[in-house]
Amino acid sequence: MVAFKRILLKLSGESLMGEKQYGIDEKRLGDYANQISEIVSLGVQVAIVIGGGNIFRGLSGTSKGFDRVQGDQMGMLATVINSLALNSALQAQGVKSRVLTAIRMEPIGEYYAKQKAIQSLENGEVVICSAGTGNPFFTTDTGSSLRAIEIEADVMLKGTRVDGIYTADPEKDKTATKFSEITYDEIYNRNLKVMDLTATTMCKENNMPIYVFDMDTTGNLKKVISGEKIGTLVRN
Question: Could you tell me the domains of the chain?
Answer without folding.
Answer: 6-235 (3.40.1160.10)
